[in-house]
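Q: Here's a chain of 223 amino acids. Please give me its 3D structure as tokens.
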Amino acid sequence: MRLLIVEDDALAAQAMITGLSEHGHQCLTAGDGEAGLKAAGDGRFDVLIVDRMMPRMDGIRMVETLRRDGDHTPVLFLSALGEIGDRVDGLNAGGDDYLVKPYALAELLARVEALARRREMGAVQTVLKVGDLEMDLIAREVRRAGVDIDLQPREFKLLEFLMRHGGQSVTRTMLLEKVWDYHFDPQTNVIDVHISRLRSKIDKGFDKPMLQTVRGAGYRLEA
């Protein structure tokens, strides 16, 4: 599981990293709310662990901004502010859970894993986002930086698969099986043709190319 820890106390953050990493979780940190907001927007995290009191931007403002921008990554507030009103404020700001310091690592771990499970079980994605590229699965619309992109049905299905695996390399075999329903490589250039067409539509005219060829591996859609 990939976790973002937003905590201005370096020792407290390191303690969390040590404990959570021992249970197999990958942890990244940000030292204040502004840095946390940027990191949350740039990365794909399963859960955010956010302190309340931080410089530059506090945890409440950070989470309110995330929710306003459409980011629904589960948030666990972790704070020394433990009164009922403090907890209510955190939950009303968009937090999914609230744990008061000092805490037991076992409880922190259990709450983080419960949030991740809840997300997996309950989330039905209707909008996919990778960087400034957005796909509406209901309306069947694609936009990059607010610009509409017209895709053919197969191109849409191909892009959907790449977006669901954003930042990851996908092989030709994976694309053949999931996008074309082929269970073997028929020595066709169908993938190359569609990748070329898709690349021209989502990258042409934009500063940063997103659809990358991974030599010897396949392709990757990178924010």
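Q: Can you summarize the key feature?
A: The radius of gyration is 20 Å.
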